[in-house]
Amino acid sequence: MRTILTAMAAAMLMGAAAEAAPSTYADEVRIRRDEWGVPHIRAKSDAAAAYGLAWAQAEDDFATIQEAVFQSRGRLAELKGPAGIENDYLVHLQDVWGTVRRRYARDLAPATRKVMEAYAASLNAYAAKHPDKVLPGLLPITGQDLAAATTFRGPSFYGLDDVFRRTLRPQAQKLALAEPKLETGSNGVAVAPSRSADGATRLLVNSHQPFTGPLAWYEAVIQTDEGWHVAGGFFPGGPFMLHGHNAHLGWASTVNNPDLADVFQLTVNPANREEYRLDGAWKRFESHWVEIKVKRADGGFDVMRKEIARSAHGPVVRNDRGVFAIRYAGMGEIRQNEQYFAMNKARNLSEWKAAMAMGVLPSINYVYGDAKGNVGYVHNGRYPVRKEGVDWSGVVPGDRSDLIWNAQLPFAKIPQVWNPKSGWVFNANNTPFQATSEADDLKPGAFSKTLGLQTNMTNRAWRALETYGADTSITAEEFEAYKYDLTFSSRSDLAKALTLLGAFNAKDDPDLAAAQALLKDWDRRTHRDSRAAPLAVLTVLKLLQTPARPPVAVLKETMAELRTHFGRIDPTWGEVNRIRRGKVDLPVDGGPDIFRAIYGRPDPDGRLRGLAGDTFIMFVTWDRAGAMSSTSIHQFGSATLDEASPHFADQTPLFAAMKTKPVRFTEEQLKGHIVRDYRPGE
Fold first, then answer.
1. 586-639, pLDDT tens digit by residue?
2. pLDDT band for position 17 (cuts 50, 70, 90)
């Protein structure tokens, strides 16, 4: 029997034959690099621009693009060994490639496919010119690969992968869920003319992502004669801007976490494990076997066989507690690129809302601003229309077909706030019921409990209310200063945990008493010069992650670690908190769940190496007359992989100093700043 992997390979080869891009694409596009190495793609057609963008991205980070392709093909274990098995299993379990093969030609508009296929053709051309950089089994890359990437990756942003993990390994997940931790995520803020000191509209684009890898931001500017003109953040291997701006409008993205997936417990026929009960009758699972190729440490490969089963609900997993099916938002959907393309090209609020009304993107908050002074917040999601009166928060009975939802809530009915009287909106991965000033906030009673809307607040959300929300006349300087806020709110989890560290009697231990005094006097700011921040932040992080441990024991452990690496319990935060990139090693302000977000992991020398958090940041302004300007910064530079490039870490000093550079959006702004001008292949 032919395996699914064999079918997938055949489909990709067939797709490649149909996706041959005209050789004229390279002649229709120019790549202009500015002094920061940022590619400005100028082309006649949208497809030619995608061809140029792919070439520029491949020049800067072809290895990550290749990894992203293998990941969405369900072949990551060929590169990563056993660490890639779970990824590959989930690709098959979610039927990513079956969905792509069935729907690619049918569901995607010809113009969208043309852009995706031109992008893929450019990657193939780059690979042909640089065969020494190509991983075995990569080629050809097709437009279907791009569709598979968004099909697989999209639902992971609302935590679908965690739903599968909890179902596959309930005991391991039970332990993990018992360990609370500081929130991670992103920031987005939009301020209307009524709240700006100068009558401008301002937008903060501030997603928090890993510093490297397939989900690390790549900055580019695209302009075509067909009306595609955007600046912002792209993912490796993707042709469409995911957040940023065009001349008329822009948006920021933050991760949200509504309840968009359900786990159904199935009753399996004791006489035939291939059947499950539905509406009083036995129904047969759809099932087949797949092969996952796994790289060994010696360079060879093993082949693992896995059964893939589906019920009427969706993918099926078995664990020691039974058999479960998972139904989730985004299942069977491949049009995410279609919606992003429409958002990229929207010229006004009506067109942007029309793009959003496609209802394709599985989740993600959007904070919006435009040249007309409109601001808005959308707690986006493909919300299932579930049966009322049922507890959807846990495992749902799987023997009733009336619980298998199919419809989704229309865009007009999902949580959103537009042009509030307060003149501002925000999100920092918090509840949609606190998105602006209190009088304008959404009310929980207006939405069905079946939506599972989140109710949490992060430190960043509290600080948004305490900075942007407390200032009714925000200047340009204040708008940026609030973004780089370094404080933990008194209402934050960290502040609450600090009270535990001051609750025990340390009079008989001079060292503990000194530590306690240091923490008591801390202003809760993560400034690089702070001598209390290292002890406070590191101790509280451990305390939140292992709440069963006595606070005094955690504090002593942190004190010992600081003495080992720094010779004292109060080094400056800048000595501890670092951004390291090649030969660049700099102190950074901020920290976990701070508006200036930095998430680090200890290096052998005890310093925290920043690995995620603030990455690509953009400030966008439309002045009183509607004229647009923007600035941006990347934590490293445009050459996200090439250590020999001058742009490997050239933006890092600016990033560490919490400063930005101009975005050269128009031809006039770019004039005089072009360092290199070439066509793909030159």
1. 999 999 999 999 999 999 999 999 999 999 999 999 999 999 999 999 999 999
2. very low
Strand partners, 631: 619, 662
pLDDT in tens, 147-164: 999 999 999 999 999 999
Cis peptide before 602 (omega within 30 of 0): no
Asked if residue 274 belongs to a domain, the reply is: yes
Contact status, residue 342 vs residue 173, Cβ threshold 8 Å? no
Check: CB of residue 95 under 8 Å from CB of residue 151: no
Contact 33, 212 (CB under 8 A): no
Report whether 637 contacts 648 (CB < 8 A): yes
Q: Is 278 within the bounds of a domain?
A: yes
- Cα–Cα distance, 170 to 179 (Å, whole number): 15
Place of tokens 């809760």: 524
> Where in the sequence is the domain holding 270, given as residue range(s)?
261-328
The Cβ of residue 510 has, within 10 Å, a number of other Cβ atoms equal to 9
DSSP letter string, 548-609 = TS-HHHHHHHHHHHHHHHHSSS---HHHHEEEEETTEEEE---BTTSSSBEEEEE-TTSPEE
DSSP state of 16: H
Gap between the Cα atoms of 526 and 595, Å rounded = 10
Element spanning 377, H or E: strand 375-379
- pLDDT tens for residues 429-445? 999 999 999 999 999 99
Q: How far apart are CA 59 and CA 126, in angstroms?
A: 8
Distances (CA, A) of 210 to 188, 615, 622: 17, 8, 29
- Give tens-digit pLDDT for 257-271: 999 999 999 999 999
Contact 479, 204 (CB under 8 A): yes
For Cα atoms 391, 394, 400, give the angle at the middle one, nearest 5 degrees.
65
The residue among 554, 589, 624 that closes a domain is 589
Query: DSSP 3-state assignment of 611?
Result: strand
Tell me the three-class secondary structure of 231-268, residue by residue.
EEEECCCCCCCCEEECCCEEEEEECCCCCCEEEEEECE
292 belongs to a structural domain? yes
Structural domain ending residue among the three candidates 589, 604, 628: 589
Residue 185: per-residue pLDDT: 84
The one-letter amino acid at 616: F
Greatest alpha-carbon span in the chain: 80
Q: Give domain status of residue 289, yes or no.
A: yes
Nearest-Å Rg of the Cα atoms of the chain is 26
**Strand-strand pairing, 608-614 and 577-581:** parallel
Q: CA-to-CA distance for 49 and 32, rounded, in angstroms?
A: 12
Domain count, the chain: 2
- What integer pLDDT is reported at residue 266 of this predicted model? 98
Tell me the CATH number at 569.
Answer: 1.10.1400.10
pLDDT in tens, 173-188: 433 333 334 456 899 9
Other beta carbons less than 10 A from residue 522's beta carbon = 18
Q: What does the alpha-carbon distance between residue 26 and residue 28 come to, in Å, rounded to a whole number?
A: 6
- Long-range contact pairs involving 466-471 (C-beta distance under 8 Å, separation at least 24): 467/595, 468/189, 468/191, 468/424, 468/426, 469/424, 469/426, 469/436, 469/437, 471/195
Measured CA to CA, the distance from residue 532 to residue 519 in angstroms comes to: 6
Distance, CA of 627 to CA of 494 (rounded, Å): 41
